């Protein structure tokens, strides 16, 4: 056999040529682009790096969930995307809006026209002394919409979210889940292109939380709104196509769900987990992988024809052969030489 796997590896020249052909700026076609975002908080002389070079692309029309441990940077990311906070470094764009260089006036316009928000605390989203319909009409009135238009829009949105029957109720006459679905309708009143929701199910039980996540899915499907939702709800990946996990201020892995049609026509939902390779070439290895092979400190990398392998620094006694090293990655070893 002449062709060893090493011999099939692309040459450095081929890889460089491919890289040259990839022109375009990072994420130029995406609706939301976070490129190496850094957010450092200073409090009482202590520096907290809430975002540590985070990359994220969201396409127009996507419904994306963000999950991650407490303190991993989810709310910081959403504050940046919603125009409430400015990152320390990096690049962030939503549609035509460059969030790093917006003036205060542009920031207000961005928040009014481009994006809508839903927060965890229901009280922060809706006014307690107004009915559900009045709550949805309120931002429309501020924007100068006529009464008839406001009424029709409020009725439509409450219907889409399955809470049309709450139109004349005040928040105190609704359940937590109903209030959050009304809050989503309020956030959508001015037809934003993107809806951000930070833990909208945080105060709800499982069944009610399911209704709210389904509400977001309906909004995404029927109104075409791009939705980014932060949640602790572990069942969220059942409701969305893409779940992005954040660890230590960076996107670390993604679960993508797609519908697969078998030969007999039956449809199955397939969920696949990917590690995220960031712009600087970093990948976070899951803890169980690191522990299983005792990977600490240094590892050996080898470029194969179709993948990259990661090897422990110290070779196990039952594997005396050296793995390919980084420097030797493009060396094609003739078969006869190998057999010696
Ligand atoms: N205003 C602030 N000043 C100082 N540190 C902050 C500030 N806001 C957040 N942090 C810190 O930044 C880190 C990320 O916080 P963030 O609120 O984004 O986490 P989170 O993923 O939303 O967590 P949770 O799931 O608990 O809501 C944390 O270590 C937090 O203590
Ligand atoms: Mg948070």
TrEMBL record:
Domain ABC transporter, first and last residues per copy: 32-273
Keywords: ATP-binding, Nucleotide-binding, Transport
Name of the featured protein: ABC transporter ATP-binding protein
GO CC terms in record: membrane protein complex; plasma membrane
InterPro entries noted in UniProt: AAA+_ATPase (IPR003593), ABC_transporter-like_ATP-bd (IPR003439), ABC_transporter-like_CS (IPR017871), ABC_transpr_LolD-like (IPR015854), MacB-like_ATP-bd (IPR017911), P-loop_NTPase (IPR027417)
Region (Disordered): 310-340
Pfam families in the cross-refs: ABC_tran
CDD domains: ABC_MJ0796_LolCDE_FtsE
Membrane-traversing stretches: none
Record flagged with keyword Transport: yes
Example of a GO MF term: transmembrane transporter activity
Keyword Metal-binding: no
């Amino acid at each position: 056999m002449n062709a060893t796997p090493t011999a099939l590896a692309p040459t450095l020249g081929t890889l460089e040529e491919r890289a040259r052909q990839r022109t375009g700026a990072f994420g130029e076609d995406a609706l939301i682009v976070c490129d190496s975002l850094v957010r450092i908080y200073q409090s009482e002389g202590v520096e907290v790096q809430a975002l540590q070079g985070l990359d994220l692309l969201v396409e127009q029309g996507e419904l994306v969930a963000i999950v991650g441990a407490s303190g991993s940077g989810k709310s910081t990311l959403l504050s940046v995307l919603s125009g409430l906070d400015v990152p320390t470094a990096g690049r962030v764009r939503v549609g035509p809006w460059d969030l790093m260089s917006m003036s205060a006036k542009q920031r207000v316009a961005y928040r009014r026209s481009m994006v809508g928000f839903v927060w965890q605390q229901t009280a922060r989203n809706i006014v307690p002394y107004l009915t559900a319909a009045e709550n949805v009409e309120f931002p429309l009135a501020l924007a100068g919409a006529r009464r008839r238009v406001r009424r029709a829009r409020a009725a439509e949105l409450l219907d889409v979210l399955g809470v049309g029957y709450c139109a004349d109720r005040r928040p105190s006459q609704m359940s937590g889940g109903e209030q959050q679905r009304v809050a989503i309708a309020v956030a959508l009143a001015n037809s934003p292109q993107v809806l951000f929701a930070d833990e909208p199910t945080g105060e709800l039980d499982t069944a009610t939380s399911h209704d709210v996540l389904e509400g977001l899915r309906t909004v995404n499907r029927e109104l075409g709104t791009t939705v980014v939702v932060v949640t602790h709800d572990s069942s969220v990946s059942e409701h969305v196509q893409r779940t992005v996990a954040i660890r230590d201020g960076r996107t670390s892995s993604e679960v993508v769900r797609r519908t697969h049609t078998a030969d007999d026509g039956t449809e199955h939902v397939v969920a696949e987990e990917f590690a995220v390779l960031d712009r600087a070439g970093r990948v976070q290895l899951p803890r169980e992988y690191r522990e299983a092979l005792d990977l600490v400190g240094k590892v050996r990398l080898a470029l194969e024809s179709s993948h990259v392998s990661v090897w422990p620094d110290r070779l196990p006694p039952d594997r005396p052969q050296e793995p390919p090293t980084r420097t030797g990655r493009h060396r094609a070893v003739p078969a006869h030489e190998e057999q010696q």
